[in-house]
Amino acid sequence: MVVRDVLTTNGVIHIIDEVLVPESAKNFLDIAKSKNADIFANLFRDKELTKYFSQLKNITVYLPTNEAMKVMDALYKNADVKNNEALMEILKYHFAKGVHSWSRMYNNMELDTLNNDGKKLRINEYVRFSFNTKWTHTVQCVRTLTGPIRTCNGIVYLIEKMLTPPENDVMTILRKDSRLTTFVNALNKTGLINQIQNKTEAFTIFAPTNDAFNKLNARQREQVESNPSILSAYIYDTSVCCSSLEGSGFRFRGGHIISCDNMATDGVVHIVDRISVRKRHSWWHRFFSFDNIF
């Protein structure tokens, strides 16, 4: 500020040394530089890329903060993005077609990205009831840190992690993980694998490890592998992110979630270290029973 507090008969004048530009007149690259997200913006330093992404219209951008980019920065800070197909796919996955404000989004909504490869962004909304009602908004189970920031060509949200396009469906994730072979076998024995493979909407699996099964006695093991209702309590017909379970200390049915938010093309997988043989509870008690909280 060059001159301040120039009093007039009808107000006050301050003289400044730069033009104030509202956020709604900036593009996402300008927003990134002013919102501690310039590491992501610097990946578009090539002139052709800057021109292409700056001229996009009617888009929603999920912008990772500098803190979120630290892991990626070491790998890609000197990368030639234009000629790096894998990195370009990751970057374009942060751009959704259309302008999407919170008021127009809903739980399990899917957004098309610039990649045009069928891998969508899944939106989830969760509410916590305490002294104040607090909503959590996620994209691919990554929390948004701000509300919608209007720009000249759409909307920007700051997010706490980079987004990575999922490569496999839920069953492929389960089969590829050597810690989950007993669980996959149990799904086959109970016939639940057919139910999973026939799902058409996003779903969630809390997958117990081999060690979790080994902690069961012979009678309990037989119950789990012969009674579909026990393992069905570990399958949800909606997308559930770990950010919705923070109040429980990342616990589920008496066990700890040891690997969160393994994103699949058709849902999400969490890995847990215990399996319970208790009967299936109602939806509310499955999330909020005392065994889950303490």
From TrEMBL:
Residues 1-20, 24-163, 167-276 form the FAS1 domain. It holds the Pfam family Fasciclin. SUPFAM superfamilies: FAS1 domain. PROSITE patterns: FAS1. One of its GO terms (cellular component) is extracellular space. It comes from the Eukaryota. GO terms for molecular function: cell adhesion molecule binding. GO terms for biological process: cell adhesion; extracellular matrix organization. SMART domains: FAS1. This is Transforming growth factor-beta-induced protein ig-h3-like isoform X1. It comes from Octopus sinensis. The gene is LOC115232192.
